[in-house]
Protein backbone atom coordinates (compact mmCIF):
# COMPACT_ATOMS: atom_id res chain seq x y z
CA UNK A 1 0.00 0.00 0.00
CA UNK A 2 1.15 3.51 -0.70
CA UNK A 3 -0.23 6.35 1.39
CA UNK A 4 -0.38 9.91 0.29
CA UNK A 5 2.19 11.96 2.18
CA UNK A 6 2.62 15.65 2.95
CA UNK A 7 5.49 17.66 1.44
CA UNK A 8 7.33 16.98 4.69
CA UNK A 9 6.70 13.23 4.39
CA UNK A 10 7.71 13.19 0.73
CA UNK A 11 11.16 14.47 1.67
CA UNK A 12 11.78 11.10 3.30
CA UNK A 13 10.29 8.88 0.59
CA UNK A 14 13.62 9.09 -1.19
CA UNK A 15 17.05 8.57 0.29
CA UNK A 16 18.86 11.67 1.57
CA UNK A 17 22.58 12.41 1.19
CA UNK A 18 23.30 11.97 4.89
CA UNK A 19 21.05 8.87 5.02
CA UNK A 20 22.97 7.25 2.15
CA UNK A 21 26.25 8.06 3.84
CA UNK A 22 25.16 6.62 7.19
CA UNK A 23 23.78 3.48 5.44
CA UNK A 24 26.97 2.93 3.46
CA UNK A 25 29.10 3.37 6.52
CA UNK A 26 26.93 0.99 8.49
CA UNK A 27 27.16 -1.80 5.86
CA UNK A 28 30.74 -1.91 4.61
CA UNK A 29 31.74 -4.73 2.25
CA UNK A 30 33.77 -7.32 4.24
CA UNK A 31 37.50 -6.59 4.36
CA UNK A 32 37.05 -2.93 3.41
CA UNK A 33 39.25 -0.18 4.69
CA UNK A 34 36.74 2.19 6.24
CA UNK A 35 38.06 5.63 5.51
CA UNK A 36 34.59 7.09 5.11
CA UNK A 37 33.01 7.61 8.50
CA UNK A 38 32.63 10.53 10.86
CA UNK A 39 33.03 8.46 14.01
CA UNK A 40 35.66 9.59 16.47
CA UNK A 41 38.45 7.16 17.33
CA UNK A 42 38.19 4.93 20.40
CA UNK A 43 41.09 6.41 22.34
CA UNK A 44 41.81 4.24 25.42
CA UNK A 45 42.59 7.18 27.77
CA UNK A 46 39.33 8.82 26.74
CA UNK A 47 37.25 5.66 27.11
CA UNK A 48 38.77 5.18 30.58
CA UNK A 49 37.39 8.57 31.65
CA UNK A 50 33.84 7.67 30.52
CA UNK A 51 34.11 4.35 32.30
CA UNK A 52 35.19 5.98 35.53
CA UNK A 53 32.43 8.60 35.45
CA UNK A 54 29.70 6.06 34.67
CA UNK A 55 31.00 3.57 37.30
CA UNK A 56 30.83 6.30 39.94
CA UNK A 57 27.28 7.19 38.85
CA UNK A 58 26.26 3.56 39.26
CA UNK A 59 28.04 3.12 42.63
CA UNK A 60 26.63 6.32 44.09
CA UNK A 61 23.05 5.52 43.03
CA UNK A 62 22.95 8.62 40.77
CA UNK A 63 22.17 6.42 37.78
CA UNK A 64 18.62 5.88 39.05
CA UNK A 65 17.89 9.58 38.69
CA UNK A 66 19.79 9.83 35.38
CA UNK A 67 17.72 7.09 33.76
CA UNK A 68 14.55 7.61 35.74
CA UNK A 69 13.74 11.30 35.34
CA UNK A 70 12.89 13.91 32.74
CA UNK A 71 15.06 16.98 33.19
CA UNK A 72 14.19 20.45 31.89
CA UNK A 73 14.04 20.85 28.07
CA UNK A 74 16.39 23.81 28.57
CA UNK A 75 19.02 21.44 29.92
CA UNK A 76 20.26 20.83 33.47
CA UNK A 77 20.75 24.23 35.10
CA UNK A 78 24.14 23.45 36.65
CA UNK A 79 25.42 22.17 33.31
CA UNK A 80 24.39 25.42 31.61
CA UNK A 81 26.14 27.39 34.37
CA UNK A 82 29.33 25.35 33.99
CA UNK A 83 29.23 25.75 30.21
CA UNK A 84 28.68 29.49 30.54
CA UNK A 85 31.81 29.75 32.62
CA UNK A 86 33.84 27.55 30.21
CA UNK A 87 32.70 29.61 27.19
CA UNK A 88 33.33 32.91 29.02
CA UNK A 89 36.83 31.88 30.02
CA UNK A 90 37.73 30.49 26.60
CA UNK A 91 36.32 33.36 24.52
CA UNK A 92 37.00 36.26 26.87
CA UNK A 93 33.35 37.36 26.48
CA UNK A 94 30.83 37.46 29.31
CA UNK A 95 28.33 34.61 28.73
CA UNK A 96 25.31 33.75 30.90
CA UNK A 97 23.51 30.40 31.32
CA UNK A 98 20.44 31.97 29.65
CA UNK A 99 22.51 32.06 26.46
CA UNK A 100 22.91 28.29 26.43
CA UNK A 101 20.61 25.51 25.23
CA UNK A 102 21.22 21.79 25.56
CA UNK A 103 20.03 19.64 22.64
CA UNK A 104 20.02 16.00 21.59
CA UNK A 105 23.21 16.38 19.54
CA UNK A 106 24.17 19.32 17.37
CA UNK A 107 22.50 17.77 14.30
CA UNK A 108 19.19 18.18 16.11
CA UNK A 109 20.07 21.74 17.10
CA UNK A 110 20.95 22.69 13.52
CA UNK A 111 17.62 21.31 12.29
CA UNK A 112 15.91 23.87 14.50
CA UNK A 113 18.28 26.72 13.72
CA UNK A 114 18.39 26.25 9.95
CA UNK A 115 14.59 26.27 9.89
CA UNK A 116 14.34 29.27 12.24
CA UNK A 117 16.39 31.27 9.76
CA UNK A 118 15.32 29.98 6.33
CA UNK A 119 12.03 29.45 4.54
CA UNK A 120 8.99 31.71 4.39
CA UNK A 121 9.17 34.85 6.60
CA UNK A 122 6.26 36.99 7.90
CA UNK A 123 6.95 39.66 5.27
CA UNK A 124 6.18 37.04 2.59
CA UNK A 125 9.81 36.80 1.52
CA UNK A 126 11.68 33.54 1.26
CA UNK A 127 15.10 33.49 2.88
CA UNK A 128 18.00 31.13 2.51
CA UNK A 129 21.01 29.86 4.41
CA UNK A 130 24.15 31.44 3.05
CA UNK A 131 27.23 29.20 3.01
CA UNK A 132 30.07 31.70 2.57
CA UNK A 133 32.51 28.95 1.66
CA UNK A 134 32.19 25.51 0.11
CA UNK A 135 32.58 22.57 0.55
CA UNK A 136 30.41 22.34 3.67
CA UNK A 137 28.97 19.67 5.97
CA UNK A 138 26.67 17.19 4.19
CA UNK A 139 24.41 16.96 7.25
CA UNK A 140 22.90 20.43 6.66
CA UNK A 141 21.73 19.54 3.18
CA UNK A 142 18.36 17.91 3.77
CA UNK A 143 17.46 19.69 6.98
CA UNK A 144 15.43 22.58 5.66
CA UNK A 145 11.66 22.20 5.42
CA UNK A 146 11.57 24.29 2.24
CA UNK A 147 13.32 23.21 -0.94
CA UNK A 148 15.99 25.43 -2.47
CA UNK A 149 16.99 27.00 0.82
CA UNK A 150 20.73 27.31 0.19
CA UNK A 151 22.77 30.11 -1.27
CA UNK A 152 26.48 29.33 -1.55
CA UNK A 153 29.64 31.11 -2.52
CA UNK A 154 32.45 29.15 -4.14
CA UNK A 155 35.79 29.68 -2.38
CA UNK A 156 39.08 31.12 -3.56
CA UNK A 157 41.44 28.20 -4.08
CA UNK A 158 45.12 28.76 -3.36
CA UNK A 159 47.90 26.26 -3.85
CA UNK A 160 50.06 26.26 -0.72
CA UNK A 161 52.72 23.77 -1.81
CA UNK A 162 53.56 21.12 -4.39
CA UNK A 163 50.82 18.82 -3.22
CA UNK A 164 48.74 21.05 -0.98
CA UNK A 165 46.12 23.76 -1.22
CA UNK A 166 43.58 25.66 0.88
CA UNK A 167 40.14 27.21 0.42
CA UNK A 168 39.58 30.81 1.50
CA UNK A 169 36.39 32.82 1.76
CA UNK A 170 36.02 34.73 -1.47
CA UNK A 171 35.21 38.16 -0.04
CA UNK A 172 34.53 39.58 -3.51
CA UNK A 173 31.47 37.37 -3.83
CA UNK A 174 29.72 39.45 -1.18
CA UNK A 175 30.14 42.49 -3.45
CA UNK A 176 29.54 40.80 -6.80
CA UNK A 177 26.30 39.22 -5.54
CA UNK A 178 24.69 41.98 -3.45
CA UNK A 179 21.33 40.16 -3.48
CA UNK A 180 22.65 38.01 -0.64
CA UNK A 181 21.59 40.87 1.62
CA UNK A 182 17.97 40.34 0.66
CA UNK A 183 18.05 36.57 0.26
CA UNK A 184 20.00 35.36 3.30
CA UNK A 185 18.31 34.59 6.62
CA UNK A 186 21.60 33.56 8.23
CA UNK A 187 25.22 32.79 7.38
CA UNK A 188 26.48 29.32 8.33
CA UNK A 189 29.94 27.80 8.54
CA UNK A 190 31.56 24.83 10.29
CA UNK A 191 34.92 25.50 11.94
CA UNK A 192 36.88 23.27 11.47
CA UNK A 193 34.98 22.40 8.34
CA UNK A 194 33.77 18.91 7.73
CA UNK A 195 34.82 17.69 5.09
CA UNK A 196 37.95 19.72 4.32
CA UNK A 197 39.68 20.22 7.68
CA UNK A 198 39.77 23.93 6.86
CA UNK A 199 39.71 26.29 9.84
CA UNK A 200 38.61 29.69 8.63
CA UNK A 201 41.02 32.23 10.02
CA UNK A 202 40.11 34.58 12.90
CA UNK A 203 40.24 37.35 10.31
CA UNK A 204 37.78 35.53 8.01
CA UNK A 205 35.55 34.99 11.03
CA UNK A 206 35.62 38.72 11.82
CA UNK A 207 34.72 39.42 8.20
CA UNK A 208 31.67 37.12 8.47
CA UNK A 209 30.65 38.71 11.77
CA UNK A 210 30.73 42.13 10.11
CA UNK A 211 28.79 40.91 7.05
CA UNK A 212 26.01 39.33 9.12
CA UNK A 213 25.83 42.46 11.31
CA UNK A 214 25.44 44.60 8.16
CA UNK A 215 22.03 43.03 7.51
CA UNK A 216 21.09 41.95 11.03
CA UNK A 217 21.14 38.23 10.47
CA UNK A 218 22.92 35.71 12.68
CA UNK A 219 26.20 34.01 11.94
CA UNK A 220 25.91 30.30 12.76
CA UNK A 221 29.25 28.68 13.61
CA UNK A 222 29.39 24.91 14.06
CA UNK A 223 32.27 23.95 16.38
CA UNK A 224 31.58 20.19 16.38
CA UNK A 225 35.33 19.49 16.01
CA UNK A 226 36.60 22.79 17.28
CA UNK A 227 36.89 25.04 20.28
CA UNK A 228 36.75 24.63 23.14
CA UNK A 229 36.05 20.88 23.01
CA UNK A 230 37.19 18.56 21.49
CA UNK A 231 39.66 21.19 20.24
CA UNK A 232 40.83 19.15 17.22
CA UNK A 233 42.55 22.14 15.63
CA UNK A 234 46.15 21.95 14.41
CA UNK A 235 46.87 25.64 13.94
CA UNK A 236 46.70 28.75 16.09
CA UNK A 237 43.11 29.95 16.34
CA UNK A 238 40.62 30.51 19.14
CA UNK A 239 37.02 30.47 20.30
CA UNK A 240 35.52 33.81 19.40
CA UNK A 241 32.08 34.85 20.60
CA UNK A 242 30.49 38.15 19.67
CA UNK A 243 26.89 39.44 19.61
CA UNK A 244 25.23 38.22 16.42
CA UNK A 245 26.79 34.78 16.61
CA UNK A 246 24.97 31.53 17.35
CA UNK A 247 27.36 28.65 17.91
CA UNK A 248 27.01 24.88 18.06
CA UNK A 249 29.06 22.48 20.22
CA UNK A 250 28.90 18.74 20.67
CA UNK A 251 30.10 15.92 22.89
CA UNK A 252 30.22 13.60 19.87
CA UNK A 253 33.70 14.24 18.53
CA UNK A 254 35.04 14.23 22.07
CA UNK A 255 34.27 10.52 21.94
CA UNK A 256 30.58 10.36 22.87
CA UNK A 257 28.54 10.24 19.63
CA UNK A 258 26.20 7.72 21.24
CA UNK A 259 25.32 10.14 24.04
CA UNK A 260 23.56 12.47 21.52
CA UNK A 261 24.34 15.64 23.40
CA UNK A 262 25.01 19.07 21.94
CA UNK A 263 24.91 22.68 23.07
CA UNK A 264 24.02 26.00 21.48
CA UNK A 265 25.36 29.37 22.57
CA UNK A 266 23.49 32.41 21.30
CA UNK A 267 21.23 35.33 22.13
CA UNK A 268 18.64 34.85 24.88
CA UNK A 269 15.64 35.02 22.51
CA UNK A 270 16.86 32.34 20.07
CA UNK A 271 17.91 30.16 23.00
CA UNK A 272 14.40 30.38 24.52
CA UNK A 273 12.99 29.39 21.13
CA UNK A 274 15.27 26.34 21.14
CA UNK A 275 14.03 25.34 24.62
CA UNK A 276 10.43 25.56 23.40
CA UNK A 277 11.11 23.73 20.13
CA UNK A 278 12.96 21.05 22.08
CA UNK A 279 10.02 20.44 24.38
CA UNK A 280 7.64 20.14 21.40
CA UNK A 281 9.82 17.83 19.32
CA UNK A 282 11.76 15.87 21.96
CA UNK A 283 10.04 16.63 25.29
CA UNK A 284 13.51 17.00 26.72
CA UNK A 285 17.15 15.97 26.30
CA UNK A 286 18.74 12.58 26.89
CA UNK A 287 20.26 12.53 30.38
CA UNK A 288 23.36 10.30 30.17
CA UNK A 289 25.36 12.77 28.08
CA UNK A 290 24.33 15.72 30.22
CA UNK A 291 25.42 14.02 33.43
CA UNK A 292 28.74 12.89 31.96
CA UNK A 293 29.30 16.46 30.75
CA UNK A 294 28.44 17.82 34.18
CA UNK A 295 31.17 15.71 35.70
CA UNK A 296 33.67 16.68 32.99
CA UNK A 297 33.09 20.41 33.46
CA UNK A 298 32.80 20.26 37.27
CA UNK A 299 36.15 18.51 37.54
CA UNK A 300 37.82 20.54 34.79
CA UNK A 301 38.98 17.20 33.35
CA UNK A 302 37.82 18.16 29.85
CA UNK A 303 40.68 20.58 29.30
CA UNK A 304 43.47 18.13 29.89
CA UNK A 305 41.67 15.44 27.91
CA UNK A 306 41.28 17.71 24.87
CA UNK A 307 44.72 19.32 24.95
CA UNK A 308 46.94 16.51 26.13
CA UNK A 309 45.21 13.45 24.67
CA UNK A 310 42.64 14.09 21.92
CA UNK A 311 44.32 16.86 19.91
CA UNK A 312 47.78 15.21 19.90
CA UNK A 313 46.16 11.89 18.91
CA UNK A 314 44.53 13.35 15.79
CA UNK A 315 47.54 15.49 14.94
CA UNK A 316 49.64 12.34 14.76
CA UNK A 317 46.97 10.66 12.64
CA UNK A 318 46.72 13.45 10.09
CA UNK A 319 50.49 13.59 9.69
CA UNK A 320 50.60 9.82 9.22
CA UNK A 321 47.83 9.82 6.59
CA UNK A 322 49.39 12.68 4.65
CA UNK A 323 52.85 11.20 4.76
CA UNK A 324 51.47 7.82 3.64
CA UNK A 325 49.78 9.37 0.60
CA UNK A 326 52.96 11.21 -0.36
CA UNK A 327 55.00 8.04 0.06
CA UNK A 328 52.65 5.47 -1.47
CA UNK A 329 50.85 7.22 -4.36
CA UNK A 330 52.42 7.22 -7.77
CA UNK A 331 53.63 10.69 -8.71
CA UNK A 332 51.67 10.43 -11.97
CA UNK A 333 48.46 11.05 -9.99
CA UNK A 334 47.65 14.76 -10.20
CA UNK A 335 46.47 15.26 -6.62
CA UNK A 336 46.47 17.96 -3.96
CA UNK A 337 45.67 17.57 -0.26
CA UNK A 338 43.80 20.36 1.50
CA UNK A 339 45.77 21.83 4.42
CA UNK A 340 44.75 19.73 7.41
CA UNK A 341 43.98 22.38 10.04
CA UNK A 342 41.48 20.42 12.12
CA UNK A 343 38.78 17.68 12.31
CA UNK A 344 39.28 14.02 11.34
CA UNK A 345 39.60 14.16 7.55
CA UNK A 346 41.91 14.70 4.63
CA UNK A 347 40.21 16.29 1.65
CA UNK A 348 41.79 15.21 -1.60
CA UNK A 349 41.48 16.95 -4.95
CA UNK A 350 42.46 14.87 -7.98
CA UNK A 351 42.73 16.47 -11.39
CA UNK A 352 42.98 14.77 -14.77
CA UNK A 353 40.90 11.70 -13.99
CA UNK A 354 39.07 9.90 -16.80
CA UNK A 355 36.05 9.29 -14.52
CA UNK A 356 34.28 11.52 -12.02
CA UNK A 357 34.77 10.75 -8.34
CA UNK A 358 31.10 9.67 -8.12
CA UNK A 359 31.82 7.13 -10.87
CA UNK A 360 34.98 6.03 -9.11
CA UNK A 361 33.18 5.54 -5.78
CA UNK A 362 31.77 2.03 -6.54
CA UNK A 363 35.12 1.07 -8.10
CA UNK A 364 36.93 2.17 -4.96
CA UNK A 365 34.41 0.25 -2.85
CA UNK A 366 34.99 -2.84 -4.99
CA UNK A 367 38.73 -2.35 -4.49
CA UNK A 368 38.13 -2.39 -0.73
CA UNK A 369 38.37 1.29 0.18
CA UNK A 370 35.40 3.30 1.40
CA UNK A 371 35.71 7.10 1.17
CA UNK A 372 33.03 9.78 0.79
CA UNK A 373 32.70 11.30 -2.69
CA UNK A 374 32.94 15.07 -2.67
CA UNK A 375 29.80 15.94 -4.60
CA UNK A 376 27.50 15.81 -1.58
CA UNK A 377 29.47 18.50 0.25
CA UNK A 378 28.51 21.31 -2.11
CA UNK A 379 24.99 22.39 -1.08
CA UNK A 380 23.67 25.12 -3.33
CA UNK A 381 26.70 25.03 -5.66
CA UNK A 382 26.60 25.48 -9.42
CA UNK A 383 25.98 21.88 -10.61
CA UNK A 384 28.34 22.48 -13.55
CA UNK A 385 31.31 23.25 -11.32
CA UNK A 386 33.62 20.34 -12.15
CA UNK A 387 35.55 20.67 -8.88
CA UNK A 388 32.64 18.92 -7.11
CA UNK A 389 33.50 15.74 -8.97
CA UNK A 390 37.25 15.92 -8.43
CA UNK A 391 37.34 15.64 -4.62
CA UNK A 392 36.72 13.13 -1.88
CA UNK A 393 36.95 12.91 1.89
CA UNK A 394 39.17 10.42 3.64
CA UNK A 395 38.92 9.86 7.40
CA UNK A 396 42.16 9.25 9.35
CA UNK A 397 40.46 7.91 12.48
CA UNK A 398 41.08 4.17 11.96
CA UNK A 399 44.15 2.13 12.93
CA UNK A 400 47.31 3.11 11.04
CA UNK A 401 47.48 -0.28 9.30
CA UNK A 402 43.97 0.13 7.86
CA UNK A 403 44.66 3.74 6.84
CA UNK A 404 47.82 2.71 5.01
CA UNK A 405 46.17 -0.24 3.26
CA UNK A 406 43.19 1.95 2.27
CA UNK A 407 45.48 4.64 0.91
CA UNK A 408 47.39 2.08 -1.15
CA UNK A 409 44.14 0.70 -2.60
CA UNK A 410 42.87 4.20 -3.44
CA UNK A 411 46.21 5.04 -5.04
CA UNK A 412 46.00 2.00 -7.35
CA UNK A 413 42.54 3.00 -8.57
CA UNK A 414 43.49 6.65 -9.06
CA UNK A 415 46.59 5.65 -10.99
CA UNK A 416 44.55 3.42 -13.28
CA UNK A 417 42.07 6.20 -14.05
CA UNK A 418 44.56 9.05 -14.36
CA UNK A 419 44.79 10.54 -17.84
C1 LIG B 1 30.33 19.64 11.18
C2 LIG B 1 29.38 18.77 11.93
N1 LIG B 1 28.39 19.35 12.60
C3 LIG B 1 27.50 18.63 13.30
C4 LIG B 1 27.58 17.26 13.34
C5 LIG B 1 26.54 16.51 14.11
O1 LIG B 1 27.07 16.01 15.28
P1 LIG B 1 26.20 15.52 16.51
O2 LIG B 1 24.75 15.58 16.16
O3 LIG B 1 26.64 14.12 16.77
O4 LIG B 1 26.51 16.46 17.63
C6 LIG B 1 28.60 16.60 12.66
C7 LIG B 1 28.69 15.13 12.67
O5 LIG B 1 29.40 14.50 11.95
C8 LIG B 1 29.53 17.39 11.94
O6 LIG B 1 30.51 16.80 11.25
UniProtKB/TrEMBL annotation:
<keyword id="KW-0032">Aminotransferase</keyword>
<dbReference type="InterPro" id="IPR015424">
    <property type="entry name" value="PyrdxlP-dep_Trfase"/>
</dbReference>
<keyword id="KW-0663">Pyridoxal phosphate</keyword>
<dbReference type="InterPro" id="IPR004839">
    <property type="entry name" value="Aminotransferase_I/II_large"/>
</dbReference>
<feature type="domain" description="Aminotransferase class I/classII large">
    <location>
        <begin position="183"/>
        <end position="410"/>
    </location>
</feature>
<dbReference type="InterPro" id="IPR050859">
    <property type="entry name" value="Class-I_PLP-dep_aminotransf"/>
</dbReference>
<dbReference type="GO" id="GO:0030170">
    <property type="term" value="F:pyridoxal phosphate binding"/>
</dbReference>
<dbReference type="GO" id="GO:0009042">
    <property type="term" value="F:valine-pyruvate transaminase activity"/>
</dbReference>
<dbReference type="GO" id="GO:0005829">
    <property type="term" value="C:cytosol"/>
</dbReference>
<dbReference type="Pfam" id="PF00155">
    <property type="entry name" value="Aminotran_1_2"/>
</dbReference>
<protein>
    <submittedName>
        <fullName>Valine--pyruvate transaminase</fullName>
        <ecNumber>2.6.1.66</ecNumber>
    </submittedName>
</protein>
<dbReference type="InterPro" id="IPR015421">
    <property type="entry name" value="PyrdxlP-dep_Trfase_major"/>
</dbReference>
<keyword id="KW-0808">Transferase</keyword>
<dbReference type="GO" id="GO:1901605">
    <property type="term" value="P:alpha-amino acid metabolic process"/>
</dbReference>
<keyword id="KW-0670">Pyruvate</keyword>
Amino acid sequence: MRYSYSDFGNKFLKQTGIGQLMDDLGNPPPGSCMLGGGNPALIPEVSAVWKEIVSKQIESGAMEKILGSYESPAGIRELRERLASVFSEESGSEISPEQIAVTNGSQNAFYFLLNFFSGRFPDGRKRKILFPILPEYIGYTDQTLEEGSFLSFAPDIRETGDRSYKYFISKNKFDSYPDWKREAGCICVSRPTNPTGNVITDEELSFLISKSAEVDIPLLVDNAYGFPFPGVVFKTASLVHKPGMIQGFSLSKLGLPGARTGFILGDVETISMLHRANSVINLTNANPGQFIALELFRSGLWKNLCREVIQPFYRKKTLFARETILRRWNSSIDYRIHESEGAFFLWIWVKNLSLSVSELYPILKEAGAVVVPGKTFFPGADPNWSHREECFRLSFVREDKEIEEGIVRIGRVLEKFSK
